[in-house]
Amino acid sequence: MNEHAIATRPGVAATTQQIARADETVVFDNVSKFYGEVLGVNRINLTLTSGIIGLVGPNGSGKTTLMNLMTGLLRPTEGTIRVLGIGTDEPTRLFRLIGYCTQWDSFPRGVTGYELIYGLLRVHGYPHARSDELAWEALERVKLVDAAHRKVAGYSKGMRQRVRLAQALAHKPRVLVLDEPLNGLDPMARAEIIGVFQGWAAEGYHVIISSHILHEVDMIADQVILLSGGYVVAEGEIGGVRTDIEEHPIQVLIRCDKAPILASKLFEHDHVVEVTMHDDRDGLLVRTKDANRFYLALNELVLAHDIEMETITVADADVRAVYQYLIGTEGEATR
Amino acid sequence: MSTTIDPVAGAARAGGDPTGAFGIDWALIRRQIGGILRLEISKNLIGGRALILYVLAFAPVLLVSLWVVVPIDKGLGGPASGAAIFANIFPFYVRVSVYLSALLLFMSLYRAEILERSLHYYLLTPIRREVLTAGKYLSALIAMSLTFALSTALLFVLFCAPWGVGELMGYLFRGPGMGNLLAYVGIVILGCAGYGAVFLLAGQFFRNPLVPGLVLWVWELINFLLPPLLKKISVVHYLRSLYPIPVVEGPFAIIADPTPAWLSIPGLLVFTSLVLIAAGWRARRIEITYGGE
Amino acid sequence: MAVYEHSYSRYPGPFTPAWSRFLVLPRFAFKDVFKSRLLVFFYALSVLVPVFYGLAIYALNNLEVLDSLGNAGDELGRMLKVDETFFSVFLLVQSGFAFWLTVFIGPGLISRDLANNGLPLYLSRPISRAEYVLGKLAVLLLLLSGITWVAGLLLFLLQSSMAGWEWLAANLHVAAAIVVTSTLWILVLSLLALALSAWLRWKVVAGLLFVMIFFVGDLFALLVNMLFRTEWGHVFNFDQLIQIVAASMLGIRPPDGPPVWGCVLALLLFLGFCLLLLHRKIRAYQVVS
Ligand SMILES: Nc1ncnc2c1ncn2[C@@H]1O[C@H](COP(=O)(O)OP(=O)(O)OP(=O)(O)O)[C@@H](O)[C@H]1O
Ligand SMILES: [Mg+2]
């Protein structure tokens, strides 16, 4: 039957090759969203190709807003979005292509995992047998078969996350939008789900994943988009983004005793561009071209001169700061 | 074109059910509404909301059953006199039980899901918002009609019951009883449909059901005082003219030229459809923010 | 080492007494309640009315004031007397205010905590379930007491101070009636509001149901009375029950309804039922089958 040929992935992959480029991308054209006075995202211009795309940014940077806009849950205050050539105000076509795993940890009252997935597939319009088949397939994929007939309200956090993933996957969409999909999953499940994403990406699907943890996205994404304060601050292949950022000078604020000694010693390094002493002579602001070498040098100096450090902070409020924040927790692992 | 990747619509076509009038795939819409009914009807018939519905519908039934059983003098009028008591209580029943149930059920259709943060599951399926609205409306209408049709029928029968089974059967099947009963059931269902549409729409504009609930109640209460044109914008107006047994009205009640049934039933249906269309149109504007509720 | 680890130490100071901790809840609730300008206005109104009563008491006790009004004053003096009826009217008006205040404030008290999963947060502090309910109850009881029995007793004392000791001695039953009926009424209101608030996640539905219970209760009572030719139907009509209790304590003609013991019994049963509802619902966790 026609339906089967298309709904199973190899079939779709075959079809996609014949489709024009314009219908292959997710395009944000000058998109802004304001919640009343509050800025959600501003002037977003993006073209997302297939593969895994990481959307990274600190809390409140607009990741969820961007995803809600892409799935028509929000309407942009300005600009247009087209997903594979389809506008977000055409639900009947859009949601055959798109699956969204939201960040809201909430469910209709009283449903079991199976009922949720099966019921929503019926709303999609699939007949009983097909819905049943697809539901079990999705539950299998997220390893939730055993708990399928228990109430979702009684699930653990990881199980709820998985049932939401299953809901997003069930109708085999070509664009998967996943808001922090790895939250609450144990390492086994993480690896498995990541494997699923990678498999889909390899077949020409779009997988868009948001995260606060650059390290996590770094490992799986082909392309990252850094968001901060509602703006896209960097975009491209992960390596590119990193060198892009590393070439810019970075400002570091240091509070410590023996600030004059530190200042003079730091100045001997060629990557340090500028050092400014604070008026109280207990702190300094350093501008450097190479963060990695700077931090190494700082470590050595602190040990050599027995300096007592009070704080070290990145003083920029832009790309580099965001990047520093993001790699801050997993700094070692990203190298 | 990407229409090739449309498994469900494709299936419909493969099943020999081509896209129907206005380029709309009616078979798909039918299946989608079926899907919504599956999920929604049980929500309306089980759980907290349903409990309130049942209390409003069946508390009077319980009371009247008790009245039938308790040996107090019920007069010698026979089932017809019982039906007359029913007829006089019926307007209150519509105004209180039916009205409040509709307020609760239909205003919750969207509001409760926003509150529980579960509306997005529907909005992420390939369904038109208008179809979603229609499906939700139907689900609540079916749940409420079933409940109140049963409740009304029981009430009517119970009121006619104290004079013995023989009398009751005679009144129901050889007298005007069954006709009246069916008329009342029909009125109640029409009432559910009309009030339901109004409250579904109101639920999309107001956060607090108290406000529109009270305003509409007063509007319907003073309906008989309104000029003819405004009269027609109300549910009570159409229902009142359908009562099969005349009601003893208060001193202010002026029933000026009651609308004939052949006019008031279509009138109510047209009124309901208009309100529903507005609600469906409004649903297209729903955004999921889940904040500040 | 992180900076905070250098400076962390246990709190060494004194603690507030354990019994008073539930008062934290009303403190924050009041802040919330009086954020709404409508409520401030409404509460001010319900405080102003007793002030007018006070002025009336003053006027009725001071012949000069009545005289200055001339003929009209005479009429007024004859018609209005500070007696049982005077206080029964006062109680009726203030219970109306108390009712609408509860409609506005009550339904949100617990339902908001439930909707935001706040209950485990409270119950993981040194506060018990009973104290939690008591704290929420205190919000309503404190607010409603002010406009009912506290205001009533103040008026009573004002009248006593003007009319003298004999009046006080002869009218002690009035003071008792003020306290007892007000207490009953505000307990009914606040416990019902809390119970609904705990069982319905949605504040506005709780509010709607609260109003419904009183209005639909009235109609149901009428239906019962009509069908069964009795007065006992009024047990579904709480304001009527309270009025009967008030009238019998004041010694004036009570409205139709069951005898006083029946009224009190019905009210107590209802209060117990509300407590049971609260007991069932206020839990730190819920088991889902
Ligand atoms: N419903 C809302 N009402 C008002 N402002 C909102 C709403 N939702 C989001 N915002 C604001 O929009 C901005 C972006 O929020 P968004 O939820 O997109 O961030 P995020 O990147 O997903 O954060 P997180 O990592 O915490 O999930 C924030 O400043 C937030 O306060
Ligand atoms: Mg988010």
Describe this protein's structure.
The complex is a heterotrimer of chains A (335), B (293) and C (289). Chain A contains 14 helices and 14 strands. Chain A has 335 residues and is an alpha/beta fold. Chain A has two domains: 222 residues, P-loop containing nucleotide triphosphate hydrolases (Rossmann fold, 3-Layer(aba) Sandwich), CATH 3.40.50.300; 87 residues, Alpha-Beta Plaits (2-Layer Sandwich). In chain A, helix 11 crosses helix 12. With 293 residues, chain B is mostly helical. Chain B has one domain. Chain C has one domain. Chain C is built from 14 helices and no strands. Chain C starts with a helix and ends in an 8-residue tail after the last helix. Chains A and B meet through helix 1, helix 4, strand 6 and helix 5 of A and helix 1, helix 2 and helix 5 of B. Magnesium ion binds next to helix 3 of chain A.
For the structure shown, list the relevant keywords:
heterotrimer; B: mainly alpha; globular; disordered N terminus; C: mainly alpha; 0% strand; binds adenosine-5'-triphosphate; binds magnesium ion
Helix content of chain C: over 70%
Unreliable spans of chain C are: none
Helical run tally of chain A: 14
Termini separation of chain C: 47 Å
Which structural class is indicated by helix and strand composition of chain A?
alpha/beta
Task: Indicate the percent of residues in helices of chain A.
Answer: 40-55%
Provide the number of structural domains of chain C: 1
Provide the CATH topology of the largest domain in chain A.
Rossmann fold
Number of helices of chain C: 14
Strand order of the largest sheet of chain A: 6-7-8-3-9-10
CATH architecture of the largest domain in chain A: 3-Layer(aba) Sandwich
Shape of chain A: elongated
Major pleated sheet of chain C: none
Largest sheet of chain A: 6 strands, mixed
Please identify the top-level CATH class of the largest domain in chain A: Alpha Beta
How would the global form of chain C be characterised? globular
Biggest interface, chains and residues, is: A-B, 50 and 46 residues
Give the radius of gyration of chain A.
24 Å
Q: Hetero groups bound?
A: adenosine-5'-triphosphate, magnesium ion
What's the mean pLDDT score of chain A? 81
